Amino acid sequence: MTLPTAETARHATATGPLPEHTRVVVVGSGFSGIGTAVALQRRGIDDFVVLEREESLGGTWRDNTYPGAACDVPSHLYSFSFAPKPDWSHVYSRQPEIREYLEQVAADHGVLPHLYCDTDVVSGRWDDDALVWRLETTRGSLTADVLVSGAGGLVEPHLPEVPGIADFQGPSFHSARWDHSVDLTGKRVAVVGTGASAAQFVPELQKVAAKVVVFQRTPPWVIPRADRSYTDREHRAYRTIPGLQRLARGGQYWSREARLRAFIGGGRLRRLFESQALKTLEQQVPDPVLRAKLTPHYAIGCKRVIVSDDYLPALTRPNVEVVASPVAEVRAHSVVDADGAEHEVDAIVYGTGFRVMDIPLGHRLTGCEGRTLREEWDRDGAQAHRGTTVAGFPNLFLLLGPNTALGHTSVVLMIEAQIGYVMEALEAMQRAGADALEVRRSAQDAYNAALQAELTDTVWNAGGCRSWYRDEHGRNFTLWPTHTFTFMRRLQRFDADAYELRAARRVPVAA
Fold this sequence. Notes:
single chain; 511 residues; alpha/beta; FAD/NAD(P)-binding domain; eight-stranded mixed β-sheet; 17 helices; 20 strands; 33% helix
């Protein structure tokens, strides 16, 4: 028998059956789940479990392993405020390093003994008599006083609704489910989509493929990343000089908040950003015909801005063809564009984004009114109070819920603000002797009406493009409309007046 080493023991996750009941169940083990677990322990709550459907932690930074996968937010900002990392290898971190960072945080902060991997939530039902969540998982059943979803919105890959996708005879896969067993060296590869993921893997594909055919529905705005490696000297300075890393993080934060004015204020600053992006396009794409294909005709920021140093240059290479037309049909060995041209290819990679907010958990959680979360959102659109709680779903907290995504900076800022709000809610319940907490529908409606009004004149709503930020009715259900410090300030205090608190005797409780 091989005995576990100190290192393997340190990284061991929970095994065996789930507890019959626990105070808090956290679903997901990305930034949201790990951050919540750390916060619970800091508040003295040790009676919790983290359920992860995959075999290891990491969330999106475990799932997205495509070539070139990296973050488009600077490393010092795309990390927990309570767990700075002085030795990031690059200004913009790569996927393996971010995943390793999450693993290290989980190990250092005692999360792993609470983490059950290979444990998917099959269903969850709110019991309005016992005031608990009754959960069925692939590992067994349990009840929980509180349920925190850290699943996020960018979970389930989206494939385009195009005839013939299932008929393609070669390898095909979504970028978030990259098939590393497929060798694309010397192959003719179709890339469907030109979003943030495609902008990272296309330059890598170009280096090995015989031909890359990029199908572009709408050209994205592209701005330089200006990435570089951190030096050993910088690493030593961040480790030894008090406050230096915090200063670097602050600089990155405020520069990004300043950039936001181009999206919510527009005018001269937006035009300046656009002129700089067009200048970069002209410098990196000298061919006027190709440059015309790649020139956006909508306001910068309306769709997600691509931050890249190598995407545009890759498109100029002889083995890359940009088809400025969406895919109309997939055949056994080819892809047909909307203009009727047929392109013979050996493989297809879909960089077509995600089913935003259509998370599996939404179809599996049933609230006190007998509707699933998905059914609730199908009625009036995806919405929540402060992006965190939903009327009809007591004791359920969503991290990175509706209207908490960002177009300019790190979502980790939003996650930490929401986690703090959840902790304040739990303390409010404890002070009041309450077993259940539910946001009033009137408070949720008022919050979302004000939020949608704030979004009206932003570039995301009025920028002249179609994007995944908005639903089929044109309602922006994803983005926060203004500065992150405004969101953080609003969530610093738990607004108990917006909630009904109840004890098991089924009467209201004074907050």
